[in-house]
Structure prediction request, 484 residues.
Amino acid sequence: MPRCDLLFRDALLIHGNGESGVTGDLAVSGDRIVALGALTGWSGGREIDARGLVLAPGFIDAHTHDDRALLGPPAALACKLSQGVTTVIVGNCGVSLAPLSLDHRPIAPLDLLGDERWWTFDSFAAYATHLDAHPPAVNALAFVGHISLRVRVMGDDVFRPARPKECAEMRSLLAAALAEGAAGFSSGLAYPPARAATTEEVIAIGEPLARHGGLYVTHMRDEESGVMASIEEAAAIGRTIGCPVVISHHKCALPENFGRSRETLALIDRTAGQGDVHLDAYPYAASSTALLVELLRDDIPVQITWSLPHPSAAGRMLDEIAREWAVPPIEAARRLQPAGAVYFSMDEQDVRRILAHPRTAIGSDGLPHDQRPHPRLWGSFPRVLGHYARDLGLFPLEVAIHKMTGLSASIFGLADRGVLREGAYADLVLFDPASIADRATFTEPELPAEGIREVWVNGRSAYTAKGGVVPDPAGRLLRRRPQG
Ligand code: ZN
Ligand code: CU
Prediction:
């Protein structure tokens, strides 16, 4: 009689490849799925009656800023595990903890990962070695950020294009990181410390990506009126380097651009014909980043997520604070800095169109160290499954799951993950499709989702609805396997 460690009986198995679910059993031994189908005659060290529940591959959060959260105790990743997330992609938007050590508070947006105490990894190898020795509660794949490289090489003199010598130095730092296990290169060209970088600078630094099978992921130069030119730029960078491209948290921000996702998605489809181009998105019509005065406009409501000099401002609307202080909002924003904010700057129809696009993976862009974070940190995955797939019928459940499992694994080259298959890693989530829902809101942003029963990382229970995060971390730093 075949035996396994963990046996699920009569689950609705949704495999992660986009195909609809089938009722069946699934067996796990060690860190792998060892069998699935009708497993009559099998027995397990632990058996779970999964009737009425979905068993799916653990979700992959395609866009995060969890570089530092991975260093904390397992409970620091409750925001991920409580949504069914078992793998996070870190080092996005040009911001990565490695390779950079600092003796003073970094400029925005690097400070979204914390002050100088957190910037101690001089090389990617140092970060990777630390995670190998102190495993995180979820798996992670890490990128190297352009802004981190710029600050490392240019110091605080980053508001200008890099000189050829500096580009060469950044290129060799990236090449070393790729050799040490980094998945690729991320940029945040919209941010002040990277805005002066030319397309040629990005290409010059990113050149080793082709040889190492790395990806270029980008928070584009312009997600507003210049969004089309920015997509062209991202695609051209990928074509010139010869590497796949991921457009991060795609959006068409500001009212004058509402509806333009029709054009942007058509352009992405055209460029994808000449190279490998994908995108990620989160399921909300509001963005969140540093509080930057140049992002302020009368027609865009702004909510403060944190403020160093005024912690009590977190959660409040900027115009309300400005009224209270009897100053214009721009002056209130100056006084709040350094600070973070939510910007209600998108159109719901664009959000839906982008989420539904076949090249779109789900990435939360959650900011785990904000005092009052955007609810995407705690709610993105259940919101796509519950609100968008089940309640609005934007796409079938199996398509929603594909966008957070198999699709993401194939974009990022994660071998044997994101799929239910014999031999694949047992990253699993068991949830109730009837009750799955996000509860986090802009007023109560840290409420865990409903409907997730249990989550396994590499075959080990990592989260249960009743007990929360299991204090015994089972995650790993993953290395990208280039797609053949
Ligand atoms: Zn970004
Ligand atoms: Cu981001």
